[in-house]
Amino acid sequence: MATTKAKKTVTKSKTAKKLLIMESPSKANTVKKYLGSGYNVVASMGHIIDLPKSQLGVDIKNNFEPKYITIRGKGDLLSALKKEAKAASVVYLATDPDREGEAISWHLAKALDIDPSSACRITFNSVTKDAVKKALTQPRAIDMDLVDAQQARRVLDRLVGYSISPLLWEKVKKGLSAGRVQSVATRMICDRDEEIASFIPKEYWTITADLTEPNKKKPFSAKFYGIDGKEKELLNEADAMAVVNGIKGKDFIVTNIKESEKKRNPQPPFITSTLQQDAARKLGFNVQKTMQVAQTLYEGVNIPGHGLVGLITYMRTDSLRIDTTAQNDALTYISTVFGKEYVSARQYKSKKSAQDAHEAIRPTYVSIVPDDIKDALSNDQYKLYKLIWSRMIASQMSPMVYSVTSASIDAGRYNFNASGSVVVFKGYSALYIEGSDDNEKEKIKSLPHLELNQKVTLNQIDPKQKFTQPPNPFTEATLIKELEDKGIGRPSTYAAIISTIIARGYVVRRQKQLHPTELGKITNSIMKQHFKDIVDIEFTANLESKLDDIEDGKRQWVDVLKEFNGPFEQNFEKAKEAISKIEIKDEVSDVICEKCGRNMVYKIGRYGKFLACPGYPACSNTKPILELSGDKCPKCGNDLVVRRARNGNKYYACIKGEECGFMTWDTPKKDETCPKCGGLLLRKFGRGAKVYCAKDNCDYERSGK
Fold this sequence. Notes:
This protein is an alpha+beta fold. The strands form 9 sheets. Strands 8-9-15-14-11-16 form a 6-stranded antiparallel barrel. Strands 19-20-21-22 form a 4-stranded antiparallel beta sheet, with no helix packed on it. A hairpin with a 2-residue loop joins β20 (about 600-605) and β21 (about 610). α5 (about 145-170) runs parallel beside α16, α8 crosses α11 (about 380-395) and α9 (about 285-300) crosses α11.
């Protein structure tokens, strides 16, 4: 860290206004209304000072001294802030309460001639009148441990990105780049893609018995378990049919009944990662959208009867702590609305690495119920606020209680199991059910009343062939969970990680899933071969832990950089020698460029291969590669081709293009034609999933996939 000489705090006229500098103008506007005419509240618009973009900006030989400059285009803003600071009686730096915010305040202090060790820094986790006024009574010095942790991360990212990226440009392709954490995320997505591609399905069979209790009309099902009390796997059709034939003529007898009561506790209030995951599952928000909407809720919304108010606490946090006042408000609300039996006060335990100075993400005022302010919010704001509000309230509610009945039913030597459950007490589920990444939602089914040694009637036996399935591609929600579980990144970085690897063209989002591009695979292969540590999950997690140690004052930031940079420089020099020039040769096609007559070539771009004229720059003609879908256009009878939108999503269009005009995002059904007219059937997924005829003059349609 650059040595900073202590500066004297300048005493200003008592009639001068106090100056409060924040990051966001909308947040500044909210706070200004709380403080009145005695304060001038302005925004720095994020960072004003940073490392230069045009060079490394780090003096490695001089203890990694950063070479900070005023960000281009912000000179006038800095001059205006200096003028405001000079005229103010006191200057308070009120940037966000995290590493990045602390660093912004430190840069501002240096630029505005404020002593960083003076009581110039204030923080608050919620933009409410009480929180802001309380913060003003507790100013503190700038926390240099937080600043050093931010500087260490910034310099580490520079050392990696500004070293490896030019090497990739030289050896592989102009425009390629590498990042410290982003490269690990790309590797995880590529590894998952390889795992899916190499997966070999294994056959297995299930047998379900459709049964009815005597004198009851409603059937229930039992699954085959084993033979003579020992579990038996059915690996092929022969195994399954041996069971089916073995139970013929046998009575189905209830041989054991077990009843128990189970409880399911609510989930804790949101932290950054769980908010991003649940917003993706329940609302379909990508990570960036979730954080953008949350930012507006945090900074302040104009609510009738309340004025401008920050509706949620700070949304970049990994702490599960809840303020006791907010907790008591939640308990009172639950008791009043649901009843005392629904109340169950809880404080949740955060991870060891969590910053407990922050709180979990919660509503600032429990009394501001989402449905009461729906008209004052945008649709997205309402959805996200309701999610946050409900999760927080539910976290203080009683468990859901349900009774479970398990029954063993034997047909001779062949054993079947049936189970059912009934909700006895809704508890927190009366308000909120957490989302799931599983494809199939848990269904609660009840069993009829059964008695020991009772005979039940077999209606049907259903053997089914199945195959083991590969893991699903990552979604944003599951990738964030994996990053968090592995200790990669921190709350403030998840959105940036995903947006960066998509922006670089290493990953595309298709139907909410993340898939590696050709560029991503090539770059990942080089990184795994020549920069193993940079893309090693454990190594990156350990480095994140060291950054946390800097923040906690347990390590010196320069020491961490020295430990990293020595081996990194040695490895980098080896890689420079080892990586030979990798030419991604342009494969010549038989497609003739209609503009200049040359044979077009295949090139690899952000979304995979495309055709380009080799005469560039004299001829810059490009076109997508025609991938025939194997189906015929329902409008004109010509071939359908597969195309991709700029976001990577697949769609189907007539080969005649605008001449015909047919296109659809829905998927052609390969194994079936329309039973009504023989035409092309399309499958629509997601909400309102259905199969329907693509012809305009045919109304065939059915629900499901």
